């Protein structure tokens, strides 16, 4: 009988801890939801842009791409330079860029337009604003693009059946070297039983 009562109390204790944990996660999640617009106060680019796109129903809101105002607009420098389409190692400007994005088959001008450096270029030759860079990424990364539009991949906030705000691919991935560096895993969490035993010591 005592064993039975102990199991009931232990189950009640575990369920209570689970409920408290889920409640705390919900509160933190709500706070994160409220703070999710903090990326718009990026010193370099503060605006949110409304984009009409035939791939979406109606308008979507995207945070402006994280372009460095030291280098953008690109035409400030490139308008005075002769276009060199030769694949080469960059040694004067942009030499800090590590290009590791299908580098055997691609180079800068696979995505950047040679004649209009303030635009990106699709494989079809169509020019594209940096604000619609997700279309450029979607040319090669179709399943991720589909998931991004659905809110499964990347970060999307807003109403479930209303306006949504998206982060662009480049808010999380460096477009020149998009693979994330490996992360060292954290230790596993303590079980409720371990926590209660530690408190008895």
What would your notes on this structure say?
By secondary structure, the protein is an alpha+beta fold. It has a domain at 36-79 and 96-176. Helix content is 34%, strand content 10%. The chain has 6 helices and 6 strands; from the N terminus they run αββαββααββαα. The protein has helices at 2-35, 75-78, 133-140, 142-150, 169-172, 192-200; strands spanning 48-52, 59-63, 120-121, 127-128, 156-158, 164-166. The strands form 2 sheets. It has a 4-stranded mixed sheet, with no helix packed on it. Helix 3 packs across helix 4. The longest helix is centred in the N-terminal third of the chain and has 34 residues, at 2-35.
Give the secondary structure arrangement, pairings included.
Layout: H1 2-35, E1 48-52, E2 59-63, H2 75-78, E3 120-121, E4 127-128, H3 133-140, H4 142-150, E5 156-158, E6 164-166, H5 169-172, H6 192-200
Parallel strand pairs: 2-6
Antiparallel strand pairs: 1-2, 3-4, 5-6
């Amino acid at each position: 009988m005592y064993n039975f009562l102990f199991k009931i109390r232990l189950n009640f204790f575990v369920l209570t801890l689970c409920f408290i944990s889920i409640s705390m996660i919900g509160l933190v999640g709500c706070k994160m939801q409220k703070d999710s617009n903090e990326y718009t106060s990026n010193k370099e680019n503060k605006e949110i842009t409304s984009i009409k796109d035939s791939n979406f129903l109606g308008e979507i809101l995207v945070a402006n791409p994280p372009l460095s105002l030291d280098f953008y607009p690109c035409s400030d420098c490139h308008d005075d330079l002769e276009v060199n389409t030769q694949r080469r190692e960059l040694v004067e400007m942009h030499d800090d860029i590590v290009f590791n994005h299908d580098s055997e088959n691609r180079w800068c001008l696979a995505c950047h337009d040679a004649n209009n450096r303030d635009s990106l270029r699709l494989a079809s030759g169509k020019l594209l604003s940096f604000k619609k860079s997700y279309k450029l990424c979607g040319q090669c990364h179709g399943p991720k693009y589909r998931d991004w539009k659905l809110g499964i991949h990347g970060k999307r906030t807003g109403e479930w059946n209303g306006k949504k705000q998206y982060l662009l691919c480049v808010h999380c991935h460096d477009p020149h070297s998009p693979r994330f560096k490996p992360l060292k895993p954290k230790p596993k969490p303590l079980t409720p039983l371990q926590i209660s035993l530690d408190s008895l010591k």
